[in-house]
């Protein structure tokens, strides 16, 4: 069983991947990624001229502010780790939060981060966050933003683009320093993706956020005029029947829960426990103690499962 690090909040418990797990998934399992530099072919220029796109606008809420987020409703279904999203939160700190539950530790998990850092848009009147949704893609640009505790280093300009087919691109126009040298004492510095699911405990009135995967991209490759493209790989979420689930060869250990009429992913112990709990109730032959499987399992937000007593 995977050991996890816990961050306790008042009504939340956030469980993240351990350090030893973070660097193992260079193939990312859920995504494949490729870096592009200034010497690559011009057709691999992933920078989007957002100011020439229709519907692009500068948001005052994310200009002249620090540590703020803005909710954005998407005009299309965006598949993130196989889950369909129609709403995200853009943060001044260089990332997009993808979770359903807003809490005080948004940087911990459930993010798309071209460059998560302690950016402060109140330092310069020229610092803005711009976004554009043209129906097939959402492009978010952090434009001329400065680090809160190191504004003398210069401004950063970079983008994240989310495409209808699930593709994600990061593009960097201005990166004045080595990303590895950015101070992370007061704010995490991350480049990559992370996803989790949220368990709502009805009786205890608390929520537990389980991070099940993250992609950490190499910070040393991030510089001026560079880009990263991440392509989604097939997941268990695309399996809609027992037959397709059993026959699938997609690199995941998927199993089918007949009671829920959906897949369960073995690497997610909580999801497997939901189906196992149903089987335990339905068959007296299952020797399962209440300590092994709780009678009330609650709701799992990301997956849309609701399980009661």
TrEMBL record:
Superkingdom, natural source: Eukaryota
GO cellular component: membrane
Key word Lyase present: no
Membrane topology qualifier: Single-pass type I membrane protein
Cellular compartment(s): Membrane
Keywords, in A-Z order: Membrane, Signal, Transmembrane, Transmembrane helix
Similarity section: Belongs to the plexin family.
PANTHER family on file: PLEXIN DOMAIN-CONTAINING PROTEIN 2, TUMOR ENDOTHELIAL MARKER 7 RELATED
Protein name: Si:ch211-106h4.6
Species the sequence originates in: Cyprinus carpio (Common carp)
Classification lineage: Eukaryota, Metazoa, Chordata, Craniata, Vertebrata
